[in-house]
Amino acid sequence: MFRGSFSARIDEKSRLKIPSAFRTVVEERFGREVFVTSLDGRCVRIYPMPIWLELEQKLGAAGVVRDPSTQRFFQRSNYFGQTAEIDNQGRVLIHQRLRDAADMTGDVDVVGNLDYLEVWNHDRLAAKIEQEPFTDEDMWVLVKGRG
Q: Crossing angle for the helix pair 49-59 and 20-30, nearest 10 degrees?
């Protein structure tokens, strides 16, 4: 549902103006409440709240919640995460801890990732793409499947 990428900026009050193409999808399908988080502090993830709640329910299912991987997921996503609301101008606050960890200042890229948005420091994303090229093996795995 979220496709493509757009350039944006973090303003002086630490707010990201969500690109209008993404904002329209979020607000019309899910409302204005979002969960702003990260799993590694390198980039920001913005989940529409209904998508985040569905993910919490899946991972919180009986037995799964005690799995160490699930516990690490929640520990990191809650360490970096906060609920937020998209304001009338389409902006969302990137809170201090996450902003510092992900170097969210100035120019950023907002990238669609199916059911959530990723926000990257522009230089950090460009370096990642250069250092981690998409290979023929990657394509083979996608086309042929993993199993």
A: 60
